[in-house]
Amino acid sequence: MKRLFLLGPILFTVVVIVLTILQYDFLLGLGWDPIKAPTLDWPSGLSLGPYGLWMIATFIITGFALFFFALRLRADLKPAPASRIGSIALACSGFCMAGLAFTTDPTLRPGPHTWHGILHDTAFVLVGLSLLISMFFLGKAFQNDPRWRGYGIYTWITAAFAIPSFFLKGAAFYFFLLAVLVWNEVIAIRLVKIES
User: Fold this and answer.
1) Could you tell me which residues come within 8 angstroms of residue 70 by beta carbon, excluding any fewer than 6 positions away?
2) How does pLDDT run across 146-175, given as a tens digit for each residue?
């Protein structure tokens, strides 16, 4: 039970892949294209489709899994400003990830933005920013802890790779998503090994 945070990145990945397959035609109707317009209402638009409740639940579950993972990480790392700031930023990222459950507004639609669409877009930006901030500080915290030392460099490399792909539109977003999901799982596995 206490290791459920290990399942967060896996759950997110599986649900996004399955829902993308099941709702492929729906996503195309939103204007999404896996090559030409990969970030147009994806993956957030999955919550608008016929199986949207699964995506909404996944945003909430994986967000809270990330939040509790950050708390466990903070308890494990040596007390220092870098570990405190890094784990708080990671917890914020988890909280904002849960905030993605507010459904997005389709990009190619007439009319004003809805309140839930604005909350979703704000949560999306905050997820990315808080995650990248957490990686910067956690990398330093890992470098200062002999049990985590090699993970500091890995964290910084992941952040350096993820930063441009987060801000670039297009297929680079797939790399951002993949990089942060793999990083989350690798760090979670290391935490479990340290605690064992």
Assistant:
1) 87, 88, 90, 91, 93, 94, 134
2) 999 899 999 999 999 888 876 776 777 888
